[in-house]
Each structure stands twice: as C-alpha cells, then as structure tokens.
Amino acid sequence: MDKETLIELVDICKIYHIGDTEVAANNGINLKINHGEMVAIVGKSGSGKSTIMNIIGALDIPTSGQYFLDGNDVSKLKGDALAEIRNRMIGFIFQQYNLLPKQTVLDNVALPLMYARVGEKERKTRCMEALEKVGLADKYKNLPTQLSGGQQQRASIARALVGKPSLILADEPTGALDSKTSREVLDLLKKLHQEGNTIVLITHDNSIAVEAERIIKISDGVVVFDGEAKEYKNEVMANTENRMG
Amino acid sequence: MKLWQTLKIVWANITGNRMRTFLTMLGMIIGVASVIILISLMQGFANSTIDSYTNMGINNITISLKGRNGNVMLKEDDMYQYVKEHSSTLKGVSPNVTASGNLTKKTSKIENGTLTGIDENYIQIMNKVMQSGHTITYSDISIRNKVCIIGSYINNTLFKGAAKVGDTVRFNGEEFTICGILAQSSDSSEWSEDNCFYVPYTTAMRLAGTANVTNYTFFAKSTDVVSTETKEIQRFLFKTFHDSKLYNVSNMIDILTEIQSQMGILTSVIAGIAGISLLVAGIGIMNIMLVSVSERTREIGIRKSLGAKHKDIMRQFVLEAAATSTIGGILGILLGTLCAMKAGELIKINAFPSFNTVMLSFGISAGIGILFGYLPARKAAKMNPIDALRSE
C-alpha cells in the first residue's frame, strides 16, 4: 500500500439478516481514496451507499472483506476500539446536524475532545479555532436552537474539524438546507479540502456530487462508476439522452 | 471523558427536568424517611424500656440467705464492708425487709399496703427526690424509731395530697410519724413506684418478727458490671457458707438481655418492611432511567459517533441514577430525622436517629441508585450507534 492511500476497501461485503432471508447491501466493493482527496459517493436510496458510509465511518464492520484506514485494519475491530477510531480519525457531518440541543455551541464542538480527554485549556483554544474557521466564533455561547439551519450545520462542521481527523465524512450535509445555505456549506467544505483535508461526501443528489473532484457511484451494492466529476457529468447526460431518445 | 465533565452533564440533566427528577426522588425521600423514622422510634422505645427496667432494678443484685439452722452468719456490717471493698463497681447495699398490712389515717384506709425497711443511704442510692422533710437517719435505725417516708400515692390517697412532716399514719395499728415526703416520680398510681412506705429496717424487722436480715439488695454502678459482680458476690458467700444451697444470688440482667435481643429482632423486621419502600423507590428510578435512555437514544448515538466508549455512556447514566437517589436519600434523612424527633417528643422518648442509622440509609440510597441505574445504563451503552442515530 502506498503512503498516499487513506482508505482502502478490499472485497467488502455486508449481509443483513431479515428474518430467514439474507440481504446483501454491499457485494464486493473495492476502492481506494487518497489523502487530500474530495470524493462524493452517490447512489439512490437502497443502493448500499449508507452501508458503505457506516463502514467507512467505523460505525459498522463488514461481514467479509477488509477495510484499511491509514494502514490500520479496521474491519475486525469492535466496540471501544471502533469508538477510538471514530474519535481520533473521523469527523462526522450529518444531514440533521445532530447537535445536542441542551448544550451550547462551544460544548457541542468540544465533545470529541472531551472523549479524547484533552485538557480544558487546550480544548477551549482548539474549539474557538474551529469555530472561527466556520465563522461562528461569536455564537459560541448560544444554544443550537438559537441558530439558523446553516449556522447549525457550520457548528457541526466545526465539531468534525476540531479533533483534526484524517477523514471528514459528510452524510447528505445539505439535505436539510435551502439552496443558498447549501451553497455556503459546500463552499466551506471545498475550502476545507483546499486546506488539505480529506473529505468524503455521501449524497443521492448528482448536482451536489459534481462539486467533488472524484465521484464513486454505488448501485445494487457494487461500484458502477469511479472517475472524475467531468466524466460522470458526461455519462449522466448520455444516460438521460438515451432514456429520452 | 473525565469524571468531572460527566458529573456536569449529569447535573445538567437532573436540573433540566426538575418535576420529573423531584417525583422520582420522592419515592426515595419517603422510603428513606420511613426507614429513619421507624428505626429511630424503635431504638428510642427500646432505650426507654431499658431505662424503665433499670429504674425497676436492672442494676440490682439481690441475695437471700438461708443459713445453717437459722444462723445466717453474716450481719449488715459485713455487707457494708463488702461494698466498701468493691466501691468501683457497687453503689451500695440495702437490707431488704418488707411487711404487708393496712395503712390508715383516721377514716381513710389502704388495704394490703407494703412496708419496706430501708437504711439511711437508700433514698440517695435510689436517686429518689424528697419533696419535703428528710430521710431516715442512722439514729432512727439504731433506736428502731417509728418514723416513715411516704410516696405520692399514699400522700394523695390518705392525705388528699396535703401531708406534712410531723403528721401521723398507722400501719397495722402502729403509729408512724412522717419524717419525709417523696416527690412524684411516676404517675402516682397504686402500681407505680410512687406507692411506697419506707421505715427504718430495724423497725421493719420488729414488725415482721425476725431477728436477722436475710435479704439484701446490692446496687451496681452500671448494667455492664452486673454479671461479673453477681459472680463476685457468689464467691464471697461461698467462702462463708461453703455450700451454695444456703444462699441465693439473682439479678435481672438476663431479662434485660432478652428484651434487647427481642427489640433488635423487632427493629430488623420493621426496618425490613420499610426497606420494601426503598425497593419500590429503586424500581421507580429504574423505570424513569429507562424512559430517559429511550428519550435520549439520539443523544447516545451522537455521543457514540463522536467517540464515546462503553464506559463513558455507562458512567453517565449510572451517575445520573445514583445522584438522583443519593440526593433523594439525603432529603429523606433530613425529613425522617425531623419527623422522628417530633414523634419522639409527642410520645416522650428520645428518637434522634443514631449515626449508624443515618450512614446506613445514605449508603443504601446511593447503592440503590447504582444497582437500579445499572440496567438502564447498560441498555444505553450497548446501543448500536447507527440505530441510535437514526431514531427520532
């Protein structure tokens, strides 16, 4: 494995048991994502993209296959070891922001550092840095409910950044936002990418996906497209024309 | 996460839901308070029972001498000498001579009254309080003077409560001059210690027609020394008589031991019944913690996705349950102490809870929180983060 690779999935399968029947959500996925890339994983609902996101995010482990994150095999880890990986290496951005409503913006942003047992002084400095980066430094004392949707999503981006993770994993980050604030959030993610962060964006929306430089399309549990955003655009157009023609 | 930060989260959750927290605590408050009240009242009652037995002579050792062919061999002076030699454990000794008969004052009459012969120290040893007059003197005893000390029952019955020193009263026709009147110590009823008629023991011996004192009462300084002192007296008497059939030594310590053990059993039974309310309170806490865990499923999912480990989640919920029940326990201790003291005042016993009772209640309430918080906390900690995040 070369040094540049951050994520490597080898023959990932995930099988769910629903009653007596087995349902394969992922059926042999292979892919590599390098440090500093901004990749969008697209797919319709039921395509298996959420399952692959859960595995990449160390929220779940595959039934078979291997997952290397920065060279470490994560696919056989359990419980607290996975929690440790999530805490140190992954920053999550969710569609519904997932901020704790009764805690201030600062306390929310501080959560990953608290679980990493970072001392209070350093914690506060790093939280304020992260909040400044997303333009919310003046709102640190507010409760999430006192912020607009866009501001809440920026707070959750600050929370994802604060632990200096190797990977920022964004699950439909603009799904709950209007088009103007969606634009702002996407621009912010692009800016973070330019600063060197690795970003994986999960979405069902092609117009969001094309903001990334590379697109991986999942369908029926397998990778059906992996290439540059430009190529993807062409292919989508061709498909549409075929259907219309 | 560090303990201090977890405590801050716990406190925020407890205070953020005041009504619910208070209602959950209420079970604990009532449970702990009832344990405190019942145990304190039982202990107060046991102590006052023991006190009253002490007044009745739990510290007394009585001996009765049969002697060889009517020769009792030991005189009063031998007994006084013995007490002097054992002054660290004995307060004194009194000859024990009684006679029964009718007490009369002009037309008023008490049938089957008891006359008790005493020495000059008896009133002081027994801590009796003189309302007026003086106690029987050494010279009264040596000249077999016909003087008497009466208790409030006789004062009330024969003199309508207006007896004075110098008044006379007849016992089986013999006239006695009152030299002292005792203050009321119980309730002035016939069966209380206020029904007493004390005369010099020498005078009593003549009335009873005996030449020798055969019964004595020794007064121990404390209940603890009664058994050992009983054995000492037995040894002393054996040296004189060389035959244990010629004397008898007895005390009430066995009765006291029996009472104490029965009170102990009763206290445990009552505390056990009150303890059931603590169990109910614990179940209440578990119930509300389970509700809290379900309500906060999403929060648990968020915390887990950000790196919370099993023990972080566990600790948060166990501490929340423990804090709820411990605060409830402390309030219960305060309430219970207050109620026990008020109830004690009402029935005239000292029912202030002992330090052990308070510590036990505190420990039990904290323990119940941890015990009943464990299951809900485990449920929270074992949640799958993906499912937890998906919940609304």
Automatic annotation (TrEMBL), chain A:
What PROSITE patterns is this protein classified in?
ABC_TRANSPORTER_1, ABC_TRANSPORTER_2
Q: Which residues form the ABC transporter domain?
A: 7-245
Gene Ontology cellular-component terms for this entry are: membrane protein complex; plasma membrane
Q: Name one Pfam family in it.
A: ABC_tran
What's the superkingdom here? Bacteria
Which spans are transmembrane here? Answer: none
Instruction: Cite the entry's keywords alphabetically.
Output: ATP-binding, Nucleotide-binding, Transport
Q: Name one GO molecular function term.
A: ATP hydrolysis activity
List the InterPro entries hit by this protein, alphabetically. Answer: AAA+_ATPase, ABC_transporter-like_ATP-bd, ABC_transporter-like_CS, ABC_transpr_LolD-like, MacB-like_ATP-bd, P-loop_NTPase
Which PANTHER family does this one have? ABC TRANSPORTER ABCH.1, IMPORT ATP-BINDING PROTEIN
Query: Can you say what this protein is called?
Result: Macrolide ABC transporter ATP-binding protein
Q: Which organism is it from?
A: Anaeromicropila herbilytica
UniProtKB/TrEMBL annotation, chain B:
The entry's localization annotation reads:
Cell membrane
Offer an example of a GO molecular function term for this protein.
transmembrane transporter activity
Q: Give the membrane topology.
A: Multi-pass membrane protein
Q: InterPro entries, per this entry?
A: ABC3_permease_C, MacB_PCD, Macrolide_Exporter_MacB
Occurrences of domain ABC3 transporter permease C-terminal (ranges): 273-385
MacB-like periplasmic core domain residues: 21-228
Q: Cellular component terms, GO, for this chain's entry?
A: plasma membrane
Family, according to the entry, reads as follows: Belongs to the ABC-4 integral membrane protein family.
Q: What is this protein called?
A: ABC transporter permease
The species this protein was found in: Anaeromicropila herbilytica
